[in-house]
């Protein structure tokens, strides 16, 4: 049986299918991106084996495990055949132990060439934490709510700039309204996994664009080692007129169900103030979206200014942005920040 580290997998075997034989619950909590889950034991079976181990010890637990999975071996081989693009398959469990070794044995008997991931998913998690911690050259794109920062990030990426879209990875736009129209967010563990793999696209000495985010994006927490670097990195602050920001927000959220917009407005009552919240909702009910957005911006702009005063930036460069501003100007401005 051949083995490889996760780094070797990235360099030499990334084109191969990778199967995760942990339980479906473990997989849902967090997994290597693009891995396929073929659980040797499902959630219930894993609990049975775990209880047997506690009561009777290792030997009885192994026997119980084989009782539960032995009859599935033929189905497993059929499943492997359905995803196999070559004779080689990467296999891992939590630590590269019994579960993945059993599947490697089965694959070998079926004529495949399994490659065991040394250290299993645990080694990948260690790699994830080191990868997130390894990037120091960050350029932060700041600006008030409605400044189209995410759109600008995508335009920068189109110009071959190094860009990480944290909101896309978190599947949330930030703020109380950020989850509207989107599906479920990843678990915290999976958010970190996906972030590390996105970072891995770029070399450690690349200057990477990030949007200025708070610690939380919906329910996802930006890892402490990264949020600290974001707070210390130079910031390029985009200045957009309030009128344009209202138009940008209307373009993004104006088509959503009014009931949902009202529910989300209610969620920020404490910070908006009861009367302002009522006025904002009445504006929505009267289809006056511009007034509704302006009430929200009063709240968000105060929060932005408060946060700006608290943050101790090494360099802050303000640049006025309009629809006619070339993205090249942002790239030139970035160069002035990193000299």
* Number of discrete helical segments: 17
Number-wise, the strands total 12
Helix/strand-derived category reads alpha/beta
Mean pLDDT: 89
Question: How does the overall form come out from the CA principal axes?
Answer: elongated
List the helices and strands in order: EHEHEHHHEHEHEHEHHEEEHEHHHHHEH
First-last Cα distance = 51 Å
What ranges have pLDDT less than 50 throughout 5 or more consecutive residues? Answer: none
The major pleated sheet works out as:
5 strands, parallel
- How much β-strand is present in the residues? 5-15%
Overview of the structural elements:
There is one protein chain. A hairpin with a 2-residue loop joins strand 9 (216-217) and strand 10. Helix 7 crosses helix 10 (188-199). The protein has helices spanning 6-12, 24-29, 43-56, 58-69, 73-83, 98-109, 120-133, 149-158, 166-170, 188-199, 224-232, 242-253, 258-267, 269-272, 274-285, 289-310, 327-338; strands at 2-4, 18-20, 36-37, 88-92, 113-117, 138-143, 162-164, 208-211, 216-217, 220-221, 235-239, 316-320. It is of the alpha/beta class and 339 residues long. It contains 17 helices and 12 strands. It has a 5-stranded parallel sheet with strand order 1-5-4-2-3. The protein is elongated.
